[in-house]
Amino acid sequence: MAGLFANARFIVAALALALIVGVAAPAGAQQRNSDNSVNPTASAVKEDQLLNALKSGPGGGDSISGRVSIPDQKSGNLIQPAGQAWRAFHEGALHWLAAIAILGMLAVLVVFYLMRGMVKLENGRSGRSIVRFNAFERGVHWMTAGCFIVLAITGLNISFGKSLLLPLFGADAFAAWSQWGKYAHNYLSFPFTLGVVLMLLMWVANNIPNGVDIAWIKRGGGIVGNDHPPAYKFNAGQKVIYWIVVLGGGCVATTGYFLMFPFYGTDIAGMQLAQVIHATVAVLFIAAMIAHIYIGSIGMDGFSRSRPAAA
Amino acid sequence: MARMKFLCDADRCIECNACVTACKNEHEVPWGINRRRVVTINDGKPGERSVSMACMHCTDAPCAAVCPVNCFYTTADAVVLHSKDLCIGCGYCFYACPFGAPQYPKVGNFGSRGKMDKCTFCAGGPEADHSKEEYEKYGSNRLAEGKLPLCAEMCSTKSLLAGDGDIIAQIYKERVVRRGYGSGAWGWKTAYKESIAT
Ligand code: HEM
Ligand code: SF4
Ligand code: SF4
To answer: Whose CA is closest to atom 5 on ligand 3?
Structure first.
């Protein structure tokens, strides 16, 4: 019994001590101004400190954010400096990348055409034509191709229009054209995506790389030199184009829909990233398609007769 | 000409949201759009601070730099405005803006983005001052009446300051000296590449 009392006394004493320390501690920790008045901002969040935390890397997050009492919860982002890097990409790197990829490809093709000319059929026409692609396949190809050209032009208008076309059109006409361009870019994305999915399904079996492709590449594919190496339905060059279309198309479609439907599954950082990927893949895609168009037209004999003569 | 700026003294802001309400009412801002909002950092913890934020009317404005139709312009008072007739609602200004200021009504195709809306520093838009068109698109034009933005004018604690940058910086500096503390001129470094020493 006495032991219990002793214990209780000890506990009371300990609690009293804790109380004194507990009360005294924050007072002691509080910073004081020079005139000894209390500084209520000693523990206050400071912008500088928060901005520095952002700089220190991913752990700091990508924005200074807090709570808002309005329904729009994403407006809780107070300062998000990442926009500066995105601006630098969009107004700088992207222009260079696009100019080098697209103009570079055109230059390479012009030089190649001047050196090689149109690749001719060695022994002329056989007089017979075979159906390589049925009407449905051709329809899908041209639907996708048509959408692609409009998407490419209206997309490049977003990147370069204000530098190239705005001075020619004037503000009002350029804005009207860009508005229609945006509608076209948005609506034609659906048939384009459908076309890419159908191409994936129709031709994937014929586009798996195999040993024949390696031999084909070793022999220059007939475009470099005058060889005519064998291939199945699609040669290695065509397979490369196929995978650029399927993978590149899948990539621009995915990122494009993130941009078209803001805040569905993304936040601002996600949309900035989606835009960077969309624009980068798009300009490389355009450069690749220019090469595809070249080979399919003036680069290779037979373009004008590629359709079955009597069908 | 003055160089107009906003300054929110977070040590005074009591998160009453009157600036938010005043803005919505003054400009008949549509449902779902907030040109101004109050963000509370460290909510409920010691050191919590609230900051009222809207478009800061940046120097070398990022929104204007990225706009694909160049629809932004800066007034003689350094207020960053835009033309809703030219805007195509692409969302790029929102990606570039450090303060999340641009807002979009959900009236575009598939309910995505309509024409961008943001704080005008109560300075209207490109239409004739006080015209019906200007009011419908951008809200009232208090600057043209010789008045400052309503949010700051009616702020009960005078936490939110709007006006010539040098003058509001001076007011803030004096406050900081008198009371001995200040958590900084929020957003100034990002928007104006300068800060007020505290
Ligand atoms: C397939 C679905 C696609 C979707 C959903 C899509 C969506 C978008 C969106 C929402 C934008 C932002 C500008 C705006 O609102 O108009 C954009 C920009 C752009 N798109 Fe697409 N797009 C698609 C396909 C393509 C394709 C196939 C190309 C290229 C051939 C392309 C090239 C571009 C370019 C170059 C930009 C501008 C990049 C910039 O300067 O920021 N897009 N796209
Ligand atoms: S705060 Fe945003 S919208 Fe306002 S001027 Fe700066 S970048 Fe543009
Ligand atoms: S949403 Fe409008 S104002 Fe903003 S960048 Fe696009 S076109 Fe310009």
So the answer is: B67
